[in-house]
Each structure stands twice: as structure tokens, then as C-alpha cells.
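User: Batch of two.

Assistant: Item 1 of 2:
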Amino acid sequence: MLDINLKGAWLVARRIIPIMIQQRSGVIINNASIASFRGMNRLSHYAASKWGLTGLTKSWAIELAPHNIRVVSIHPTGVNTPMNDGLAALEGKTPQEIAEASAAICCRYPGSSPKTSPTPSSTSPPTKPASSPAPNSSSTPAC
């Protein structure tokens, strides 16, 4: 779990961060978990890897803010599979609501609204907003 959830994010980011620093902009979105906030029975290895990813996200947010790079993480609940039946309900949401809230963090999503969008665990300090790119430009994220 540490290699996938924590080291994997670090390996990818160490290649892209220099490019983002050079262009003086960027966003890194890490896919953490609700396990980042509390322990999980029989899943201590998973929870530890996600706690580590949240710490890495918060540290990068501080370190990269001077370069106009935002670093955030999303914290969805479990995927609705037979192994995880009922996890979305424990969060008081449907699997669809969790999917929409997660997608809203990443890009403009037709069903997103501030009420359903989760708050990222960390963000860099606010910076002067850049001008909006033209639709279909290369800097517009594909969703």
C-alpha cells in the first residue's frame, strides 16, 4: 500500500513539479481517502498510506505555493462494491453524490455545486487569479 498510495504519488510528482515550477503554475490533485482522517479496522496499512499522502499534500501545498502551484487532495469514501457495501451510506451520501463531489474538485462538472463539493484538505494561499483560458485550449482539463 505504501508503494502504491504514497510512493507512487511522490514518483509522479517529482517528475512534473519541476515543469510546473518553470511555468509558474499548476495543480496537483491527490486521491486520498476518508481513511486519511481516521483509522480503519483491519486496514491499518491502507490508512497509514493515506495519512501519509495527506501529509505529503499539505507539505507540498506550503512548499509550492510561492510558485503559484496549488496542491489539494480529495477524500472519497469507499467504492460501492460487495466488499464495501454500505460505506457511502455511513457517510450519509449515495455513491452518486460521492462521485459527483469528487469530480467537482477536479473540474467543472454539470452536477456540482458548493453544497456537494467537498473541501480540499489543503490549499496553497490564494493567489491573483489568472485569466480564464479559452474553451478547448490545451490548459483546460479534460473531464
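Item 2 of 2:
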Amino acid sequence: MDKKLSLTKSILWRLTGIIWLLILSRSIQITFLHHSVFLIIYFFHERFWLKIASMKKYWLKPVTYEIVLAIPILTLISFYYTGNLSWAVILSVTYTTSKLVLYYGFDRFYDKLILRQIATNSIQKG
């Protein structure tokens, strides 16, 4: 997958995440800041995982992204805007755990679309 496809995937996933965080947090400020930061982080995380060819990546990839990166950063952002640490932690953990399930399906679906597109292009060229 080239950089253009990584960028497209990154944008589609950000849109999914924006809607989901906006629903959970009911805060435009938290949602905007969180997703602005993670648009960049996601792109580089995605590029790293392109080098790994294993079925385990479909679980390892979202775990490293969400647990190692997302929980601490979203907690800090939420705490900054609300001043309520317990609410910030609950929001971060709820958002992150639910996104692990969403991401697994999104990643598999997107990879199947890309493989289908590659196969279609190969048939048309051949």
C-alpha cells in the first residue's frame, strides 16, 4: 500500500473516530484536539505496521495504538477541558476499548477493499 492509500485510510478512520468520540464526550473541543493530534500519529503508526505480514497484526496494531498512545493522550486532553480526572479516565477507557472492536472490523474491511482493487486492476491490465 502506498502513501496515498495510507492517507486515505487514515482520513476515513479519523472520520469514524470523530463521530464516535463526539457521541461519547459530547464535546467539540475534546474531539477536535484529540483527532487533530491523532491524524498525524495514526499516519506514522499505519506506515510502521505495513512492514508486518501476520494475522496477529489485526489485534496487535490497534492495541499498541489505542492503549499505548490513545488512553494517556485522551485522558490529558479530557482532563484539561473538564478538570475532572475520573470522568477523563472513564471517557478514555470507554472510547478506547470500544474502538478496539471497531478498528478490527475497519482494518479487515479496508484491507479486503484494497486487495479487491489490486486484483481488479491486475485483471484489467492482463
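The mean pLDDT is 85.
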